[in-house]
């Protein structure tokens, strides 16, 4: 199932400068694996050594923060918009 | 919204003692530039300094001879040495009020102080952080200032942009208090209401910054955040200087993103390292509203990570459900022997009234949170009433009038007879 993934500036070195790329997968975990296959290195930036989302990465699937959903197991239906955002802000 | 074509500059940046950006998680260093997240681990970047070495007495005299605003601490901040000569709002050096009446009411015997940051130019502590971000924006060649805001920051950015000669375009949740909306709009910049919570606004701005639509914009709390955050250190500097160059024993700080609390800790540690204050223990307490208390919940549950929540509280300036610096707040509260506590909206309003009634200080809801949490921590035996305690009030009650239903004691005809009948006469 194809989804679009919005790539933050600091990861665009892995996507040839592209701000948005396509990926495949029925869950966020599978989408990240798909991203890694096409853009080697991305997964290690987004996931920590134990394979969990890094604590300063926020990921949204269709406007929903995956931490409110099922984390890496959050479903990503065809046509979903996935957004990866550094969790640094406030005020 | 116009698209700016300014390419930010990263060369020949003069930001005083700031030497580099350093990742708080993995320690990786980066040149001073308008970036905010580590390219390796997404961790937050903060300023690494080459702070002045030498005689603490000489540095203390130099500070004391400086202007009565945050620029007296310019040698400790990421700003050029001539910062005080540039057009700006020059915030800071607000009153540290010895709150003896409140102390009596709460049973504090060791000295209770309110650091009243409602005295800043736009009536909140945000003027401090924005002032530092403005200098970074100048250094990097930005011409538009922006931010995601729960209200106070939008006003502070609008005002600072007007004085310093920037265009501004700021973003807020669409349902903020009227006082904050007016204060954000009056300075002539663009104000955009976003249909959603602060966390939605924040996410929107984080995406905008990576898009050509936001290119060349200095988002004070996003791509200028490493610089911006340092402004909160000045609260620590001022409190210690105003206590006679002494660390407070206990300090109660509101938590929204958690940045302010972490930077106050950083500021206190710097003063110790520079020999400006005696090295002795201090305890830092964090204060949240029950309706948005992810850090308090994590502290009480013994967790190291903060689970985001959907905010629902009258303390809108603290209504950040996904506080980026939450894990660091937990570390600091535990390291210093402090705590993180929360109070209900009703307790917030009671605390606003308590502070107003005892000290003549009208706090915004965030100030109600810190005073309310202070009261609760004393009652619970967590905060030691025999020690010197400083409570932060970070904003002006005029911005959150709706939170406090106050009105006339009586409305009467203009006659002595009517006044007598109202039962309010002397004696």
TrEMBL record, chain A:
It holds the Pfam family ThiS. InterPro entries: Beta-grasp_dom_sf, Mopterin_synth/thiamin_S_b, Sulfur_Carrier/Prot_Modifier, ThiS/MoaD-like. PANTHER family: SULFUR CARRIER PROTEIN CYSO (PTHR38031:SF1), SULFUR CARRIER PROTEIN SLR0821-RELATED (PTHR38031). This is MoaD/ThiS family protein. It comes from Streptomyces klenkii. The lineage of its organism: Bacteria, Bacillati, Actinomycetota, Actinomycetes, Kitasatosporales.
């Amino acid at each position: 199932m194809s989804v679009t993934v919005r790539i933050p500036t600091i990861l665009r070195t892995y996507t040839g400068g592209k701000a948005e790329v396509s990926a495949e997968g029925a869950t966020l975990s599978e989408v990240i694996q798909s991203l890694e296959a096409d853009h080697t290195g991305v997964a290690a930036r987004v996931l920590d050594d134990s394979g969990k989302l890094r604590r300063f990465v926020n990921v949204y699937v269709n406007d929903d923060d995956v931490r409110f959903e099922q984390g890496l197991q959050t479903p990503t239906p065809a046509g979903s918009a996935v957004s990866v955002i550094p969790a640094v802000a406030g005020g | 919204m116009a698209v700016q074509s300014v390419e930010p500059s990263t060369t020949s940046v003069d930001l005083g003692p700031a030497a580099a950006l350093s990742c708080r998680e993995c320690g990786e260093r980066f040149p001073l530039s308008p970036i905010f997240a580590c390219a390796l681990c997404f961790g937050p970047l903060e300023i690494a300094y080459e702070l002045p070495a030498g005689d603490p007495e000489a540095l203390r005299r130099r500070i004391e001879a400086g202007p009565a605003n945050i620029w007296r601490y310019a040698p400790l901040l990421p700003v050029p040495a001539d910062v005080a000569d540039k057009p700006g709002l020059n915030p800071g050096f607000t009153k540290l009020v010895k709150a003896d009446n409140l102390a009596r009411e709460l049973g504090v015997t060791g000295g209770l102080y309110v650091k009243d940051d409602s005295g800043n130019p736009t009536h909140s502590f945000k003027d401090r952080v924005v002032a530092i971000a403005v200098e970074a924006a100048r250094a990097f060649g930005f011409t538009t200032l922006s931010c995601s805001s729960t209200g106070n920051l939008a006003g502070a950015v609008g005002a600072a942009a007007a004085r310093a000669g920037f265009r501004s375009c700021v973003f807020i949740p669409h349902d903020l208090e009227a006082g904050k909306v007016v204060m954000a709009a009056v300075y002539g910049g663009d104000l955009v209401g976003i249909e959603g919570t602060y966390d939605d606004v924040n996410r929107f701005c984080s995406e905008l910054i990576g898009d050509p639509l936001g290119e060349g914009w200095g988002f004070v709390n996003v791509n200028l955040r490493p610089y911006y955050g340092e402004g909160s250190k000045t609260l620590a500097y001022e409190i210690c200087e105003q206590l006679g160059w002494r660390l407070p024993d206990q300090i109660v700080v509101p938590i929204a993103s958690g940045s302010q609390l972490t930077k106050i800790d950083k500021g206190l540690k710097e003063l110790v390292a520079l020999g400006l204050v005696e090295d002795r223990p201090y305890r830092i307490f964090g204060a949240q509203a029950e309706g948005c208390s992810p850090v308090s919940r994590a502290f009480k549950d013994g967790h190291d990570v903060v689970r985001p929540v959907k905010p629902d509280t009258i303390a809108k300036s603290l209504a950040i459900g996904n506080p980026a610096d939450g894990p660091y707040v937990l570390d600091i509260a535990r390291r210093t022997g402090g705590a993180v506590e929360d109070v209900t909206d009703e307790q917030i309003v009671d605390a606003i009234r308590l502070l107003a009634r005892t000290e003549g200080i009208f706090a915004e809801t965030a100030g109600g949170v810190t005073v309310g949490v202070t009261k609760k921590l004393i009652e619970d035996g967590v905060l030691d009433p025999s020690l010197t305690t400083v409570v932060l009030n970070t904003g002006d009650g005029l911005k959150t009038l709706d939170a406090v239903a106050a009105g006339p004691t009586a409305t009467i005809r203009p006659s002595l007879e009517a006044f007598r009948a109202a039962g309010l006469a002397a004696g």
